[in-house]
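Exercise 3.2. Students should predict the tertiary structure of the chain below and write it as structure tokens, then compare their answer with the key that follows.

Predict this chain's 3D structure.
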Amino acid sequence: MSIGPCVMYTGKARRGSKNEYGVVRRQGRRRLAHQAAYEEIHGEIPAGHELHHVCGETLCVNPEHLVLTTPEEHRARYHRRRTHCPHGHEISGENAYYYKDRAPDCRICRRRRLSCR
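Answer key:
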């Protein structure tokens, strides 16, 4: 199944423990941009659930790229070693960017992300 392109949030962002997330004001509260985008389409996120970016881009606010998971499922998906990025690039050899504390990332897509900032 092919998903549409990422919709990258370009507004204010905050640094999480490992990633950067967009931040918006919604109904007088600060919210993570991807959560607000998901709730606009699908309604409130149920208690005991989290959103997982299937694209791996924490600044992406495309609701098609967000799926509800339990915290356990989210950790398992996040730590799963990927062989290809969502755009079909193989994550190995010269195209693998290695982080200190998580699975490797696609160097082509990482370079593209960083050039948009």
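Discussion points: The chain is about 25% helix and 20% strand. The two ends are 29 Å apart (CA to CA).
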